[in-house]
Design a protein that fits this description.
5 strands; HU Protein, Chain A; two-stranded antiparallel sheet; 3-stranded antiparallel sheet
């Protein structure tokens, strides 16, 4: 599933009864604050959902899939998401319901 900022804004517009411009600004500000925090190395914690943080990856050997040639994959920083306990439990309970439903049908 892909969820765009426009879709989030549209959903909030319908739910919150704010102007479209106010909702668009709200969504833009939220994502900008998340981006700024990550840029300066701060962890972003969304209570009941999970955490976004940066992880440094070392340089490592790799292989070009087209040619098979060995290449070095450069060191870099990546954004990592770790789901929170509430989200994990919710997903696990839904998985069990879906699994049981498929067995019955």
């Amino acid at each position: 599933m892909v969820l765009t900022k426009a879709e989030i804004s549209d959903y909030l517009f319908k739910k919150l009864k704010l102007s479209k411009q106010d909702v668009k600004n709200l969504v833009d500000i939220f994502f900008e604050e998340v981006r700024k925090s990550l840029e300066i190395g701060e962890e972003v914690k969304l209570s009941g959902f999970g955490n976004f943080y940066l992880r440094n990856k070392k340089q490592r050997p790799g292989r070009n899939p087209k040619t098979g040639e060995c290449v070095a994959i450069t060191a870099r920083r990546v954004v990592v998401f770790k789901s929170g306990q509430k989200l994990k439990h919710r997903i696990e309970s839904l998985k069990n319901i879906h699994f049981k439903k498929n067995i019955i049908t």
